[in-house]
Design brief:
The protein is of the alpha/beta class and 629 residues long. It has five domains: 169 residues, 3-Layer(aba) Sandwich (Rossmann fold), CATH 3.40.50; 61 residues, Helicase, Ruva Protein, domain 3 (Orthogonal Bundle); 114 residues, Zinc Finger, Delta Prime, domain 3, CATH 1.20.272.10; 92 residues, DnaA, N-terminal domain (GMP Synthetase, Chain A, domain 3); 65 residues, 2-Layer Sandwich (Ybab, Chain: A), CATH 3.30.1310. The strands form three sheets. It has a five-stranded parallel sheet with strand order 2-3-4-1-5, with helices on one face. It has a four-stranded mixed sheet with strand order 6-7-8-12. Bound molecules: adenosine-5'-triphosphate (ATP), magnesium ion and zinc ion. Adenosine-5'-triphosphate (ATP) binds next to helix 1, helix 3 and helix 10.
Length: 629
Amino acid sequence: MSYQVLARKWRPQTFDAVVGQDAITRTLRNALASGRIAHAYLFAGPRGIGKTTTARLLARALLCTARTGPEPCGKCAVCVEGLAGTLVDVIEIDGASNRGIEEIRTLRENVKYTPARGRYKVYIIDEVHQLTEAAFNALLKTLEEPPPHIVFVLATTDPREIPPTVLSRVQRFDFRPIAPDALRASLEHILNEEKIPFEPATLPVIVRAAEGSLRDALSLLDTAIAYGDGRLEAETTAKLLGATAPVTVRAFATAVVEHDTGAALEAIDRAARDGEDLLAFARDVIELLRLTLVLKAAPNAKPADLTHTEGNELRKLGEATGLDEILYVLRAFLEADALMRESPHPRVELEIATVRSPRRPVPQALDDVLRRVDEAQREIRQQALATPPATPAAQASLLPGAEPAAPRAEARRSSAPAPSSAPSSAPAPPRASTPAPPPAQRASSPTPQSAPAPAPAAPAAPPSQDLVTAWERVVDEVMKKKPTLGAVLMQARPTGVSDRELTIVLVGNHFHREMLADVANRELVVQAVRRCVAGAERVNLVAGGEAAGAVATQVDATAGGGMVTVEANGKQELTAIKIDPEVVNKEDVQMLEDLVLAAANEALRKSRELVQQELGKLTGGLKIPGLGM
Ligand SMILES: Nc1ncnc2c1ncn2[C@@H]1O[C@H](COP(=O)(O)OP(=O)(O)OP(=O)(O)O)[C@@H](O)[C@H]1O
Ligand SMILES: [Mg+2]
Ligand SMILES: [Zn+2]
């Protein structure tokens, strides 16, 4: 026997076999059982979800001569003819090719004749929305006063195109796209019945591509089986459907979770070059992260989509990271998924999520400390730019609000190197004008230690001046309007506002500079800066060298005998803060704060030393002419 396509072979022969339209089949069965049949039905809904199938079942049930319950008997002459599609009393009309008034007039003539065999004649008009207006009007007359032996089933994928006059004369059923689980179960059932070997990972790939249509799912299955030479393999099926292979998706998710941003971005690039559907890719990543989350939270769960090996791989991925981290990454990709649908640059949205997701904000406990560190860092940077070489004022400004703290840390952990060594190695600054005593003096002074009640480590300076935060808002605002430009701005850092001019240093390549040389782009940035950065009206762009960075040398500093390590780069950015879990003590957050401050202080001092030589070059030579915005 020749191969029969699965959709045809598996067309349901009973209402019971119709998948995912339970409310509809139940109502129809009740109507059949009670004999309360409407004159006209409308079956509306997207393609391939059972409209024609159900219409034919209804017709056969109405015509079946041996029906006892709601289902057609399947054995009487009518049922047998029905299966063969040769029933004269079931008239199927394709609305797309019989859309004119003539055809409907003929129909109106024919409905007068009684059925050849039983009590009913059933007209199934498919794609009824294609009828012309005149044809609809002609049909309306029949729908108003149909002969008692006539039942109409109008089917459409586009009910909005049907005149309200028609809608008001039909009993309407809205067929729903079939849920992924139900699709998957149907495919599995059919594959088992057909004895076709399959990898379970194939099913989600097909289910997703079918978008709720069982017919589409079955014809994809046909193609994939033919392609796989009678077998169904995940890898080849994914390739066939332009989807990303499951192992690649896994590799990508692993790279993201392990903070290997480079590898993750390469995977996106490769997928894009291979013409894979990035939206589908993002959804696969989300599904995989979701499963990882489930397995992390409930290690004994057995998600249906996974083989034993895959389950173990995801458990391992989950072990490598924290629940919060997975949640955070998952949320980033969920957002990207939503943005990708709207964005003219879906790929950029995906890349942004990839770059952002490992940069999870630290939990609340450390937030405060880091804000203060940020603040201090900003001030140092401003001072360094304004009056290089920087004065110890910058150094001192690290500590307002926490002034008694640093020495306390010193006293407790005498190895904390930071403040005491600062002034000695700093380039000779004019000390007379410093508002606070240099740390060395304070450290050696007995006062703070003997002070009866040290000031609580309240948040340091008011955040109103927080240039870093303001700049983040600028980037976010631009990102919303133009993601590509926003991505470029992510590589720039603000260094200070003076004379109503915000200076930003752009670490980027020639392409990035061109983006910012564009007049329209420039205007976007300036507008955002005016809104977000207090006191800034113009923008001065300074090139910070190619991506590698002219000042990227790493420095580090420790406090508390290595319990806290802070790394900074030559751009005066803190690049890492490592805290020995042993020092994390809920009872004494202040000590931890002190250690972090001390180490950050020192790291920034070292970094500042480094940058001082470099800043000369930046502010001197490299101002790009056409870019004074
Ligand atoms: N709900 C369903 N339950 C079981 N099989 C289904 C279902 N929907 C679709 N199928 C399968 O898909 C095939 C096509 O379905 P059907 O012709 O009923 O779709 P349709 O909704 O009329 O689509 P279209 O709008 O494209 O005409 C069926 O032969 C059957 O194999
Ligand atoms: Mg149909
Ligand atoms: Zn029958």
